[in-house]
Amino acid sequence: MTSTLTQLPFEYYSLPLCPPANGTIHYKPKNLGEILRGDRIVNTPYEVQMATPTNCRLLCNKPDTPVTWDGEQSGIVSERIQHSYYIHLLVDNLPCAMRYEMLDTGKPQYEHGYRLGFVEDDNVYINNHLRLILKYHTEDGVHFRVVGFEVETKSVSLSDLQFDGQTCKFPEKHKKQEVNSQGATHLQFTYEVDWEESKVRWASRWDTYLAMSDVQIHWFSIINSVIVVFFLSGILTMIIVRTLRRDIARYNKDDDLEEALEETGWKLVHGDVFRPPQYSKLFAAVIGTGIQIFCMSLITIFFCNVGNAVACI
């Protein structure tokens, strides 16, 4: 769960969302890339079967027992929605994305994850219905591979939901599910699954994600880093200027000739610049090997951080 307005990510179950059916939460072992990004992959109660569509159904609880949040829980959810938090689901190690069209060109574009909710007219609404659109590719009609994962969100009020056992339905024009940040909130979480055949092969399923223009720019992080760099640079500049000014003033004194001829401070360094070190061949070999190991480690960490498909031990 991440946001573009704050640097703090949260776990999925840091909010009072639906737990797994058996109540047991399992965390997937992390590789190096997931550790560097701070990801924590955990199981969810969504039930998905390969190439089998699922109509609208309840995610948890019973039709006559809605999910109930008290004032404190509703306040936390409302705060996360106001901070534009996104939830990131995974299917077959493929992250979900939301599809939308550019207003100027009309071309489809994708953004990572889906919005937890939205704010309209100072009212906070939660997206409690998900339409999971999974795309698969098959060569022989027997073996299937997931090559795409899209999510469409809706906010459906509890009063508009109609249940038949664990299945549900709601009108096309429905009310939105509001989060009461000052009191209790009653709601139900629902979802549906649709499968679409795709011509995209398994080897090319990441092309859509790599072509994304990252709209979730962390401006707060960028501005914070720039301010810290300028602040530290200013302090370092002041220290250097004061030191040099004091040394230059000392060297410009003509009162004591012997003291003027004796070099002190930073001027002593100029003689060491062209002095060869001892064991120069060993020094050059160690420096060269160190740079090679550093660059190799940096490139390896970069590729592990970029793609979930790279397994690092």
Which strand-content bin applies to the residues? 15-25%
Order of helices and strands: EHEEHEEEEEEEEEEEEEEHHHH
Count of DSSP H/I helices: 6
Question: What would you call the structural class?
Answer: alpha+beta
Rg (CA only): 29 Å
Low-pLDDT segments: 308-313
Determine the fraction of residues in helical runs and give it as a percent range: 25-40%
Reported for the largest beta sheet, the result is: 4 strands, mixed
- The strand line-up of the biggest sheet is 2-17-12-13
Average of pLDDT: 83
Distance between the termini: 25 Å
> How many β-strand stretches?
17
Overall spatial form: elongated
Characteristic key phrases:
elongated, three-stranded antiparallel sheet, disordered C terminus, 313 residues, alpha+beta
What does this structure look like?
This protein has 313 residues and is an alpha+beta fold. The protein has 6 helices and 17 strands. The strands form 7 sheets. The protein has a 4-stranded mixed sheet, with no helix packed on it. It has a 3-stranded antiparallel sheet with strand order 1-4-9. It has a two-stranded antiparallel ribbon with strand order 3-16.
Topology:
Layout lengths: L1 E2 L28 H6 L16 E5 L8 E3 L1 H12 L2 E3 L2 E2 L2 E2 L1 E5 L6 E5 L1 E2 L1 E4 L2 E4 L2 E10 L5 E11 L7 E3 L2 E3 L15 E3 L2 E8 L9 H4 L8 H33 L5 H5 L18 H27 L7
Parallel strand pairs: 12-17
Antiparallel strand pairs: 1-4, 2-17, 3-16, 4-9, 5-6, 7-8, 10-11, 12-13, 14-15
